[in-house]
TrEMBL record:
<protein>
    <recommendedName>
        <fullName>MSHA pilin protein MshD</fullName>
    </recommendedName>
</protein>
<keyword id="KW-0812">Transmembrane</keyword>
<dbReference type="InterPro" id="IPR045584">
    <property type="entry name" value="Pilin-like"/>
</dbReference>
<feature type="transmembrane region" description="Helical">
    <location>
        <begin position="13"/>
        <end position="36"/>
    </location>
</feature>
<dbReference type="InterPro" id="IPR012902">
    <property type="entry name" value="N_methyl_site"/>
</dbReference>
<keyword id="KW-1133">Transmembrane helix</keyword>
<keyword id="KW-0472">Membrane</keyword>
<dbReference type="Pfam" id="PF07963">
    <property type="entry name" value="N_methyl"/>
</dbReference>
Amino acid sequence: MRARHGGATLVELVITIVIIGVAIAGVVGAFSLIAGRSADPLNQTRAVALAQLYMDEILSRKYDDNTPVGGVPKQSGCTINTEEASRADYDDVDDYNAIADAAPENAEGTPLAADYSGFRVSITVECAGGEVGLAPADAKRVDLTITDPGGQGYSFSVYRANF
């Protein structure tokens, strides 16, 4: 009579190795997907903060070069006169139309901290009073696009009224 030896057969071992391999491949795939997107929320947060910085600065400026301090009397007409001066000289909304694919800077033209390295800023200004129920000459739309280091673009728009 033969003695039975307990253990696993070669077929059972191969099946076990295949099952474990498939499970590991699934887990590694999930981790790589999560790791690839881990920077997205941080970049989104930084893009929103950067957009807020620029929009606050732009909205604090005059409607037009000829608009007096306080805005009265109201400037007639809507013109976009982009001045190619330094950033510190921007005194009205139109001037920001010159920013295209630029590195982020503060209002004085000094580059922002390393937290924003790799980010790019583009701004366009257009006459758009009719879009918000005002006379065509009474509002400008400012479109701001922030591009993060990964190439993802974030778009923001705001209207500046002629008051």
